[in-house]
Amino acid sequence: RRAQYEAVRGLAAETLDGARMSVMVNAGLAEDAASLELTGADGIGLFRTEFQFLVSATLPGRESQLKLYKRVLEAAGDKPVIFRTLDIGGDKALPYLSTDSTEAENPSMGWRALRLSLDRSTLMKAQARALIQAASGRVLRVMFPMISEPWEYEQARALFEEQVEWAARGNRKLPERIEFGAMLEVPALAEMLDQLLPRVDFLSIGTNDLTQFLFAADRGDPRLAQRYDWLSPSILRFLKRVIDATAKSGTPVRICGEMAGRPLECMALIGIGANGFSITPAAVGPIKALIRSVDASALRAKMDGWLQKPPQDLRRALTEWARRHDV
Ligand code: PEP
Ligand code: MG
Fold it and tell me: Distance between CA atoms of 26 and 277, rounded to whole angstroms?
């Protein structure tokens, strides 16, 4: 198997019927950029900028953020890197930043991520300036976590654009262009896609948080880990509606939660029309091998039927389909 994954490293992530998929990696540290070379992934689809904050004893200043972002962009070369702005607060509390979140009863639904960044805008401004400077002369791609309503996206984007103007006034070299994306991980946002999609360059679905909110089941509670299945018709129907809406508007969409890194789950995602994934580096080989062994249009037809009239056990149905089709 290892040899098989090695063999797919240099090959395109293309299905049997010729659909090209994009397979990127999730990362968070400068060292992670090496995984691009090792795995042959198409880029970094999720760079979790809060990692630097979580491993540091004091608040990383603009200079040290700049250094990290530059290093990552340089290591990625021509491949795209999507930086996600800070996702701290909640369960990722920082000892040197008072968020009062230790007292929150539901930290994952608390004052975290973009909510915190918009309220503590000095923090976000420093990050925006570091990202803008790091990407001078190249494309900067940023996305915002935990957006619940479109105005939060608008406010975050406006803050970035103000920092671009600030940099321009100082005659600094700017990014060639900036692409802005939204993470869809709060279910409410799915109801507002008609408003949001015309304003974003891409959408990224975070299935870790999204499924915990859809099922109202804490993603960190081991007693619930086996209770609900990612391969449930409810999740897949939900995701399919989002993917169909983004496809209709011509907006690229990528799935960046852990779900996409598991072969059977990824197969189901291809079956509902997904074509972009950002996954843990160790999963790139298995997922590329899966993509290359599947007939996407046959699978989509089968999934349509299953989602209209769900079988008793969708996981089993998918497993059997995979076996029958040599996936
Ligand atoms: C997610 O929620 O699915 C996601 C990709 O972000 P994180 O796991 O960092 O919350
Ligand atoms: Mg998340």
Answer: 10
